[in-house]
Task: structure prediction
Amino acid sequence: MCQLTARDFMVKKLITLRPEMDVLDAVKMLLKNRISGAPVVSDSGEYLGVFSEKCAMHVILDAAYDQLPTNEVRAFMDVEAQTIGPDAHLLSVAQVFLLTSFRRLPVLEDGRLVGQVSRRDVLRAAMSDVLKGDVRVTESSLLYLSAIRDRDQAPVA
Result:
């Protein structure tokens, strides 16, 4: 499990948004696709930020109090969202999710978006290794995962 990197389990086919896109269309896109956020990229594929449900809450409040001073995604996107590189190890990615409130981490290579990892992607990758028996108990922190695998593979009497 420690050998897996973001490149091994990241999602590569992503719904992305453009910075000049109408913010209400962006909200509709999130709702239609049942996703909690999407990366914002330039026409050349350069990563610019993330537009999430939380960003959309700012849209609602600004529309209510300020008559929505602008309608572009760029005004509401999170430009300080955490990102990772494609060589980030699974356990490092899990730790980022544990220590932050982020639900997704864009994967960047040379400033360009190459994929995205969600909390669920990390869980799926970890469980895939457990179920395949690829977990090697070399650290005490992995002992628990090994026990789960052994328990799940035990014959039912």
Observations:
- The mean pLDDT is 85.
